[in-house]
Amino acid sequence: MIEIQNLTRIYGTTAVVKDVSLTVETGQIAALVGTSGSGKTTLLRMINRLVEPSAGRVLIDGKDTAEIEPHLLRRQIGYAIQGHGLFPHRTVAQNISTVPRLLGWTQDQHRARVDELLELFQMEPADFRDRMPHELSGGQQQRVGVARALAARPDLLLMDEPFGALDPVIRAKAQQDLRDIQRQLGTTLIIVTHDMEEAVTLGDRIAVMDKGELLQYGPPSEILTTPATSFVSDLIGTGDRPFRLLSLTPVAEIIAEGQAEGAEIPREASLRDALAECLWSGRDRLPVEGGGIVTLDSLRAQAAPTARAAE
To answer: 0.85 cut: is pTM over it?
Structure first.
């Protein structure tokens, strides 16, 4: 569990983070969202003391991070940034094993962990272990960057705009991969993003920041239906709000009996995904993996109350 208590950072006479307090429970994903200059990256960097707080404190599982040497603290916390930050003259395996080497792991432990993570990210170890970063695609580089952040099995992973440089298709896949892997590992994750869509897709909790202040912190459904301020409402937008609410509910919750033609949709897909598939393919019903169907009429029925809730 991460507890941020009255955290403040002042540069000169300007407070870029102002008295922020929030808690991220173990195994949750918290998304910090806001416009440029809102203080979200500074807040993130105070957690691993890349930026020292001017006031307040951070507790990780009840331990004050100010009582831990900064370099030792950072070895306990995974950190991934936009553009992956891989060392260009080190192989994939050498990049991934950076922190385990600093921690004194043996060569066999390095290799086993590298292979484990490559397999987890669906990258065949024999094919990728000895490649150089420039030999990878952008999506592959980003996966290696996240694998490196996870290499020492940290309980906490910090991510600063990790998918900002990826094209939309690769970005969507990277987000899904991250969500799946985070659920498998149970890692607590705090991610900075300027994209509300990404925050809703990934976050169990969303923290909206503006001018250094925390305006609202809560589950995506609460942020979308009851924005605390006009800034939060504007950041969410009105036109997309019903569709974002649909993205929070899986298809499995509205499966009906019946048969349908065409490709099956996964049970864990969102209602938004199902609606998009119906509209794109021109079908009024979709078969669901494992049996049953989801219909366009049922999706429309779900969309109507979410649209009213978003008004």
So the answer is: no
pLDDT (0 to 100) of residue 23: 96
- Share the mean pLDDT of the chain: 87
CB of 121 closer than 8 Å to CB of 180: no
As for how many domains the chain has, the answer is 2
Q: Are 193 and 31 in contact (CB under 8 A)?
A: yes
pLDDT at 307: 52
Which residue segment(s) compose the domain that 260 sits in? 244-310
| Runs of H (alpha helix) within the chain | 40-47, 70-76, 92-96, 98-102, 107-120, 125-128, 138-150, 168-185, 196-202, 220-225, 230-236, 241-246, 271-281, 296-310
Same domain, yes or no, for 104 and 38? Answer: yes
Contact 234, 40 (CB under 8 A): no
Q: 160 pairs with which residues across the strands?
A: 81, 192
